[in-house]
User: Fold this.
Amino acid sequence: MEFSEVVRRRRMVRSYTEEPVDPALVEKALEHATRAPSAGFSQGWTFVVLDRPDDVRRFWAASSDDIEEPDRWLAGMMRAPVVIVPCSIKAAYLDRYAEPDKGWTDRAERRWPMPFWDLDAAMAALLILQTVTDAGLGACFFGIVPDREVDVRRALGLPDAGDPQPIGAITIGHPSPRETGAVGSASRRRRTPWKEVAHRGRYGAGWVS
Ligand SMILES: Cc1cc2nc3c(=O)[nH]c(=O)nc-3n(C[C@H](O)[C@H](O)[C@H](O)COP(=O)(O)O)c2cc1C
Assistant:
């Protein structure tokens, strides 16, 4: 698939068939994820991959209220044979930027214009979504409900707080043939054309070609 087509075709898929996912695709997605850019090449990320039914079920039991009587969203998502939980590792950035070529030896958090650790893990997550799209399968990035974070962390073998910090989760599977086109918010809202959000020269100028 052409790169532009991968970008255009990618959408969040929230309902899957039970067809297994080729483990080679999962490995490729992870390989691509680690090609993401990272501040100072810190690479402060880690990915918990759930690709066995018991592991996937444990994730859903920890992250959701009622897996026995799932609503439509949960029923569709729970069928995904693979869930990847990308996590950020803040300490890797504080350590990296305290090295001689960066020199922020005080490890002060006020120096950081953005939480680069979360930003970089999100870029890696997008590469996973795009790799799955390129292979003709579907994926959905979604948030972990704050009330459930500790349960999810325990289910994944992560510490109760701090690093590694799950930034969300990604389901991967074969899209259900019943789910065609945009669903969720994307079915109710219009995609804003780029010319409405780009500003040439200065903010507020809009786009004049
Ligand atoms: C940070 C983030 C959190 C999201 N959380 C959820 C979520 O909890 N549940 C869900 O169904 N979709 C979630 N989405 C998917 C968005 O709803 C979706 O990306 C958006 O509606 C645009 O649709 P598209 O990605 O299919 O183009 C999330 C997306 C992002 C980037």
